[in-house]
């Protein structure tokens, strides 16, 4: 354990002298399923979060061709359930976790294919960086998936997907699978082998009921744990970000920081996060703007939606283009630089950290 | 007090015999600022709410000409502050209260007039049943007032109004003045004798920041007591109600009751009521539909926005047209009948009743 | 109205000229149940709360003999319900209100008498400044009433009282009757003409379940609107105040201000106030200590429990002894001076003001 | 992976045929840090929680002698920080986790020894099954540790321990270390090498301020994330449980289930759990009583405080005596049988499960 000892962790001072008595004691511990704290303290309780997860960037130019190749080789249907390819954090092998709490994958659905219905405790969303033509059916309500849209599938809602077109479509899935797997909270149930409604409306029934700013149906006065809104449309997101930058131009307080507009997707019944474990946000930097360097407890995943720019992750600068994804594990600093107008979708486990009182944030000046 | 005694209230049983000793006792009470419970119980603690306020209907065809006449005769400006005419419940004379908690008035602003800025603890809103051309300036942010819009002025926000046109405009004000006056909670402060910004934008800055469904600016993550959204536009209200009725046509659960769509205006930071004392809603009945008869604790005020129909208030049916207003005091039953599509704006003190745990509701079958 | 006009209220500037046209307009208003704002603004919206209620002190030396005299002359039983004598604020005549929201009364029960059971929406408590021997039966659970105890009867709980001794007993009742009467929220229901349980246990069943610091029965995990604890015993109140002053002696932060210990009675399921409309507190000043002068929105009522001292109410100093009561209406400054150790029970409508966002407080330096 | 496939998990149906193209695809995945969902679905998303943690019992008769032996062989002090021996779930090797979220250890402090001060994000408590003489100093406030007491050290509070006696003492520590380690949320800071206050009062300052049932100091009106009460004393716990069983004898609803009294330790500022991640409870079964069999999401750890009885864990019955500990991992059924009066201390991660909406419970009939 000595190589774990450093000035930035709890030191393993005062290890007991190795004697026959100590060996007998350790043997006794082993027999009784006991492990002493003093042999492992630095690992257990670091001075600050030191994730096994590492900062990592995935290039869309690599992801998409692999997803397309899998479309030809791997069936989708009951059993495998989804043609989804997980972004596996190199520090968390052999698990397909992008972080200790979050799962991110590229999902691919061929022309006219259907991914069958199921439900699970895990909370899920989809984000569409390009393409169209798929409807996700959430508790029987078909929800169009188009470029720039955020689509929700909160825990224990039945859902399947079907492609109504002759072209394939790929998108990003985000879930709390690593959290649920490690914390032993997940239930799963199969539903229809098809989707229960193959209609292809422009707007789902739930959107027609809920997507009116500040208006709540009297048939929906009970607060819900997750958002009743299954889709957050690009036209609204884009308008909100556009207005923030225009207001900033007019000298009004509106942006998150200078040149940096940002919105949080929220549950209209509470004003809080869309799901109990996952926060979703959208960020836009003006061309030429740079964000401050920030770090926070919990993990953050980003996908470039549009534009050219760079992320500085733990001091390492990486150039980014549309579709590129990256993860900032807990307490790893990150900052952005925009060459053009630079749009980023973001999701994180911040609701977990905030609800359990572990959140901390730091900003470099 | 005998005439107050009835089977439906706490009876004044067992009044003490009138003797010299009792008179001396009552004299002692009076000298010491004391009043015995047994002489007044039925009034103090009725079997159910029995408001001094009475159900009453005001006809727009009478209100508007009187408001117009006041425009010629009564100045507006610092001191009088507003050319507003209160709807005075006949049961609450000499107070200009529409109910024990609520104030409702028709306000009139002549061509190019300005109502100066002030602020007060009282929460206020405006609702526009017809007309356009006035901007209300809330904490320096000009908010357009157009037909069908609900405009908020939560407590302690500076506000003034100015008419940008050559035509007058009238609208409805709602406030919690009776509550604040009787409960001694009000503060008042003068602001500018003009409005601080004579701009006439289509959308206020706060709407540009907040009127995006389910989206919250990162610059506005702190929950606010009242809604940060100063205007709820008719196009959104109308769309929400239209969709509810269409969903009902499709066999989906969406309406409040059959043929009756309804929305509540909410604070997007919490999903709750727009202000701490006032609830605002909008109701639409299909042509031919009728609501159930309901009663609830607290007072409800309605204005017909459009259509033909009737209200049955405490068993009395009154025909209604655009602009007509009426009040249902606490525990007075009310029901609606729609001849044409029938749109009603509604406000009430329900947040007071709910937050203090006094709310009760009953529906007649 | 001119005599209402002053520099410290909204001025009635710019009253319209008295003309036949104006008189016709005012006649039209009257016919249509309308009252213009400009004739009444200063009253409706003062610069700060100006209660009709006045600061007032009631002397226990006067109250108790009158209560005793009523014991001989006035029966108690179904109909009159209670032999309670309300402290009527001189500014609120002819109502028996101690403030616009609160009712306070001295209640008197003769030897072996029973006050029959009923329930009502109004929230009630009793506080015992002297005496013993009565049990209040709350939802069938007999609760001993002893010196220094606070006893709760939250809204809609059946309750009656019985005197188990051969001596009479008097105590103080506090309720939200004025609020409920003016706001039209009250329901009332008769119960047994007797009390349903004449047992005289030292501790009620609810205390046995709930009066353990920081411990919650698993049979009571549902939060309740009002406290499930029907009695707050003097031994606990006294101990808490004693410890605060001892901690202050030790240099620890514990008191409300120097020399001034204070506790709030709370609902153990939420940590909040005991009832939705009424706050109860207990204050103790060291001999020689003085409080700062404070004012707050809402009304506060105090009863001296023990000791000698004075209150300065709106600048007027009054000497106080055990049992003396006084009211500080909204925004009236009050301060205390203790000659001996000085104990005061306090109740107020602060939960109403806080829940509806009207609370403001000011401290004189 | 085939051996993971069973009817009670998501089946790995439709695995693609092994071809050169598929191998190339998988090679591409590996190069880009991608892992497909279809090769691992059953593990990731089981039909119900299937913890790697196993039900396990630790015997006090084995634990205590090993702790005593470590007292002679292992120093305590800065670096090692604590002489604590973790109960390591056999299913979670090589980690010293009793469950995926919880840490439990026996800590041992020799005569006159001091464990130095530090603080960390992790929430901690201690429970004393036997012995006395140690004071834990929490943010400078010395807290006596005696038999039956629950002592809290919420996250980020400085704490150390010192033994004031000539005899050693052992107790149980509970923390959320596994959660914090896996979820990357922990910060740590050294404090004094000694404890900052060697006083040995019977009651800590915080208890003197807070341990009064239903009473809240006015100096402590701000709600706190964790309980401000650092100790829950056995006399209160015992009294609460005793009264529940007496009330049950009297035919009153008071117990959790027949013959089974239980209390939850709560934060008096909110009525909620003592810390954001850990629930603490105490259970007492009458001699001869048996609980129903229950399972719940999340992990539960128990220690027998007194009496003879048995636990049935996942169908396996184990006889238990004072000090014995066991864990029921997520969704593992457990039930109790009491031979004598049977007292059990319990802690769990239920606040995590409830706050993140993952809690489910089932009771066998």
Describe the structure.
- The structure is a homotetramer of 365-residue chains.
- Chain A has 7 helices and 24 strands.
- In chain A, a hairpin with a 2-residue loop joins strand 19 (309-313) and strand 20.
- With 365 residues, chain A is an alpha+beta fold.
- In chain A, the strands form 5 sheets. Chain A has a 6-stranded antiparallel beta sheet.
- The radius of gyration of chain A is 23 Å and the shape is globular.
- The interface between A and B is large, with 44 and 44 residues.
- Strand 13 of chain A pairs antiparallel with strand 15 of chain B.
Please state the oligomeric state of the protein chains shown. homotetramer
Mean pLDDT of chain A: 94
Number of helices of chain A: 7
The helix content of chain A is 10-25%
Strand content of chain A: 25-35%
Q: Please give the order of strands in the largest beta sheet of chain A.
A: 2-21-18-23-16-15
Largest sheet of chain A: 6 strands, antiparallel
Question: Pairing-aware structural class of the strands and helices of chain A?
Answer: alpha+beta
How many runs of DSSP E, i.e. beta strands of chain A? 24
The low-confidence parts of chain A are 1-9
**Computed Rg of chain A:** 23 Å
Spatial separation of the terminal alpha carbons of chain A:
36 Å
**Shape call of chain A:** globular
Largest interface: B-C, 101 and 102 residues
